[in-house]
Structure formats: C-alpha cells, structure tokens
Amino acid sequence: MERIIENRLQLKKRVLVVDDEFINRRLLEKIISEKYEVLQASDGAEALEIIKENRNTLSLILLDLLMPKLNGYELMEILKEDETMNRIPIIVLTSEKEAEVETLNMGAADFIQKPYDVPEVILARINRIIRLYDSINILNATQTDQLTGLFNKDYFIEYVGVIDKYYPERAMDAVAVNISRFHILNEMNGRAFGNEVLKALSDAIRNCVSERQGIACRNSADRFYLYITHVDDAEALRHSLAAGISSLVKDADSRINIGIYPNAQTNPDAPKRFDCALLACNSLRSDYKSFVAFYDAEMYKKETFAERLVSDFDEAIREKQFIIHYQPKFDVTGDTPYLASAEALVRWKHPELGMISLGLFIPFFEENGLIQRLDRYVWQEVSNQIACWKKKYGFSVPVSVNVSRVDIMNPGLVKEIEGIVEEAGITPNDLYLEITESAYAEDSDRVVEAAGKLRSLGYKIEMDDFGTGYSSLNTLAVLPIDVLKLDIDFIKHLHTSPKSLRLIELVVDIARFLGASVVVEGVENSEQYNTLKNTGVNIIQGYYFSVPVDSEGFADFILERIAYDNRQKA
C-alpha cells in the first residue's frame, strides 16, 4: 500500500549522505538520486542540524566515520540518545574492516565498503534497509499506544506469553493501575492536562517495569496493566507510581489505585489474569481509605457467583424467577395514616441458590448491561399486577418502579414505557418512576429531557436516594420532580444528632418550595415515625408499617385502604 501511494504521488524518500569528501558524496548521489531525494552534509555537525530539521522525513543516513568537527562515531552516540532521531537507520561508509563490527554494535543497520565500485550492490543494500526499517516503524506504531508509548493490550498479552515461555519458574504478578476520579481532572483542567498526567504516570510505570523485569501496557483511558516480578511491598510500588504524577496532581498519593493478582503465572489464561487484577482494582472505587487490593479466594468466590447469576439471567426471565414484592407507603399528613402508594422491589427466586436479594444481583447487572432488560421485566409485571388489582377491587394504588441510569440514556425510553402502560390497560397515574439522584448528577440535561417528557404525559417523577448524590440546589430547581425520597441514612442518627433532624426539616422546606412531596424510607419504630411526622414529611415507608410483601399480601393493604375511604365518606 505504501509503495502504491508513493508511485501515485511520485514521492521520493529522503536519504542523507554525510561525508567530508565531495567526490564521495557526488558518487553516492549519482547512484541513488533516481530513486531517492538526496541531502548532503560535509561533516557531523552539519549533518546533525540537517537531521534535526528533517527527523520526521529522513528514511536513511549514509554516514562516513572519519570527519572533522564531529566524526561518525560521535554523531551515532548523539543520535542514539534521542528518541525522535534514533529511529532513522544508519549505513556506515567505511574501508576499515575493524570499524564494521564496532559500528554494528553501536546500532548501525549495515555498512557499505569504500570505494563505491559496485553501484547495484550499494542500491540493493539501501533499498533493503529502508524497507526493513519502514516495516519496523509500522510495527512499532501498531504495537504501542500513541499517547504513552507503552504496549497496547494485544501486543502486551503476546509478550506476557513470551515471558511465561522463557521464564516459567519466575513468580510474576499481574497488576492493574488506575487514576481515581480521573474524569474530574479532565473536566477541571482540560483534556490536554489529563494527557500530561497519563504520560507522567506512563513514565513512572516504565521505570517500574524496568526495575522489576517486566512489561506494561495502557489498557484504556486511565487504566494500565503491569506484568512484573512478584511484589513484596505493594504500597512502595504504589507510592513510586504516585510520585510520577505528584508534580501535576496535588493529591497524587490518594489518586493511584492498584489491584494485584499475585503469582499470576500459575493461571494459564493470560487475559484472565489481568481481568482478575482489574476486578481487584475496581473494588477500590467506593473505598477512599484503601488504595491496594489483592485478588483472593473471597474475590474469586464473588466473581464466580456473579458469573453464575449472569449466565442464568435469560432462563430466569423466561421462567419468571424474578418476583416482585411491594412495600407500602403511607400518607401521614393527617390524623390517621393511610395507604398512598407502594414501591416495587424485585427478588430472584433461584431454583438452586434460593431467594437472592436485589442488593446482590443489581450491581452485576448494571455493570454488564442486563439491567435494562430486568427493568423492562419489572415494568411489565408491575403494570399487569396494577391492572389485575384494578379489575378485581375497582381501586388503583400507584406503584413506584426504578428507572436506571442506563434506561435514561435510551432515546426510546418514553415510547417503551408508554407501550407497556397501554398494553396493560392502566394509566400514567398508576405508575411512579423513581430515578436515583446520582443519575441526575451524571447527566442532568438528559434526565431533565426524559423526565420532562414523561411528566408531561402524566407520570409522577421521584428522585430516589436524595442526599446521597451530588445535585446542587441550582440543578434541583430545574429538575422536573414530584417527590424527593430521602435515603435511609438520613434517619440513622435522627435522635442522636440535632443536625440530622434539622437537615430533614430543611429538605421538607425545599420540597414545599418546589411543590414536591417528601418520602422517607427505612422507618422502623414509633419514635422515628412521630419525629418525622412532626417535621412535615408527607409519606413514610418502612418496617414500622410493613416489610415488602408479595402481591397477595399487598391485597390486604388495598382492602384496608378501600375500608378507610368508605369510613371517610360516611
């Protein structure tokens, strides 16, 4: 392909001839000028300037050894130390046999003997070296990451295999490294700054693998893999990497996380070793006190459990192993609390593993994209159940269902929900949509757009887990919401910390200002209930009223609500 392009554009590769003898330069020019563009220098110093100016376009240097100002040996030493110029191959021009071995050891690609009495041989040697180094440069470009110069993942895994082959007894560790909250660095300082941080970390990694007889690659973004001799002091390794970016990032030492799969060479599946190391590294995401994690038996058990759940997912959907429980929410604004709505909570009744709570499988499904399919299953099951209750009791109790961050990114979300509601024969008033606060914080524009459309169609929008994310008050003012739902953490210290109580009162005031209701979940006793009721909270959910129950158990609450309404009418 490269030759075709050259021929079509009539391009000539550049060759620099360096010789203090004018006649020698002219002879070489005559031999190669038909095919190559020839630059000339009469000594090493002049040649160095020409090389600096043309470092990106020179294909070859023909170098005499004995010259004034700067001889060929000295020039080769200078070029060898410069990463931008040492890629240019050198053919030595000499009549001394002894010099051939010495210059080849210094890095010369080949040599041409003086005098130049066989032009065909000279041209053939030049053609061969240029083609060879072009191939090498292309190979280097494809096997390394353009920004950092480290291996890319595919070549890295190949070289891991080479190390295993030639050093089978050496204890090696697979290490995953990432920069915590790297996206924030990019957002605050710009992508160019972020690239400088990545390059600085790459330099530190390069030094590390050199000392520890290993190799490294950039896996993606701010993630790196190292394959190094066994690490006895993981914190020392981490500190050395953090030091590499300390001049750019003030809190560098708390930014570097590493996951280690020790003695990884015992696992014959090379890619799996680094998956394990990355799993250990990712386990540190929500831990701001620990910065090193090891892949161990407990992590393996958790991973295999997750893989089992994922592999069984399709069958679970087909056989309706996911069952819905409903936890009632009570309106407490009057003298007598009454059923106002419910929250749908999904459980997995696994035929072998038993009942699995959503806290165990939801995180796995969020990571691998299955959460969308599960959400749709829940929306359909809940909608059908609401329709069933309406038909049986002539009464509708709204049920809240979760809308995940992944759902929000789906441009067809509104159409899908509308289709499910229409097919079930219920109305938008029957289905409340819970969106976590973290989803608002991550992409508020997209959430505002989607929630706004749904709200305009009659759906009530609830901000779930309010107070656990990072929504600013300014953002809160423009979000289309009907309900603020306080996380259970808000009431943990309700009666031991005046600040906790005051915060709830402030949230109630904010909700009133926004025209929204306040729901508090996790209420377990009468003391919490009475305190929250006095603050002006609208809806209470928790074990104080009921644990989550199945559809039959929830029917009892519907009957109680119907009886309550009849008493009010009487």
Question: What do these coordinates show?
Answer:
By secondary structure, this protein is of the alpha/beta class. It has three domains: 142 residues, Rossmann fold (3-Layer(aba) Sandwich), CATH 3.40.50; 143 residues, 2-Layer Sandwich (Alpha-Beta Plaits); 253 residues, TIM Barrel, CATH 3.20.20. It contains 23 helices and 19 strands. Helix 9 runs antiparallel to helix 10 and helix 15 packs parallel to helix 17.
Q: Summed up, what is this model?
A:
The chain is of the alpha/beta class and 570 residues long. The protein is built from 23 helices and 19 strands. It has an eight-stranded mixed β-barrel, surrounded by five helices. Strands 2-1-3-4-5 form a five-stranded parallel beta sheet, with helices on both faces.
Topology:
Layout: H1 2-9, E1 14-18, H2 22-32, E2 37-41, H3 44-53, E3 58-64, H4 72-80, E4 90-94, H5 97-106, E5 110-113, H6 119-143, H7 153-166, E6 172-179, H8 182-189, H9 191-211, E7 215-220, E8 223-229, H10 234-245, E9 256-261, H11 270-282, E10 292-294, H12 297-311, H13 313-318, E11 322-331, E12 338-350, E13 354-356, H14 358-368, H15 371-393, E14 399-402, H16 405-408, H17 413-424, E15 431-436, H18 437-442, H19 444-456, E16 460-466, H20 473-478, E17 483-486, H21 498-514, E18 517-520, H22 526-535, E19 539-541, H23 551-569
Parallel strand pairs: 1-2, 1-3, 3-4, 4-5, 9-10, 12-14, 14-15, 15-16, 16-17, 17-18, 18-19
Antiparallel strand pairs: 6-8, 6-9, 7-8, 11-12, 11-19, 12-13
Helix pairs in contact: 3-4, 8-9, 9-10, 15-17
